[in-house]
Automatic annotation (TrEMBL):
The chain crosses the membrane at residues 7-26, 32-54. The keyword Membrane applies. This is Uncharacterized protein. It comes from the Bacteria. The keyword Membrane applies. Residues 84-129 are annotated as: Disordered. Keywords: Membrane, Transmembrane, Transmembrane helix.
Amino acid sequence: MRFRARNLFVYIIMALAVFGIFYQLLFDTAQLFTYILMTAGFAAILFGIFYVFMRKRGTGGISKEYRKAVKQSRRKYGNAVPNKRMYQATARKQRKQNAQPGKSKSKRNAAHLRVIDGKKDKKKNRASF
């Protein structure tokens, strides 16, 4: 019962709002547009203020945990910033390797991986378990 009374109240308020908008649209159109423009301007000003304050407080979407991890990593490994020369040297090396089509790379097996041969032909006897 309480839920229906609340819904009825909301519907009455919405109906009065629609009636008021149509009434102003028919009899005082200039004032309606003035109210609409003032409301839009006020909302834009509030949004601008909110945006400026939140932008100064935040760090561009980087979380606190990430910044803490970066700081810890820099303490451990040093503050090594990659430079332009390093990227240019690796790019030259890759171009030279791609330019020599006659040479093929020799495949090497990874040292930490090994194949374990199992006894695949022997079937398990389930009765012994």
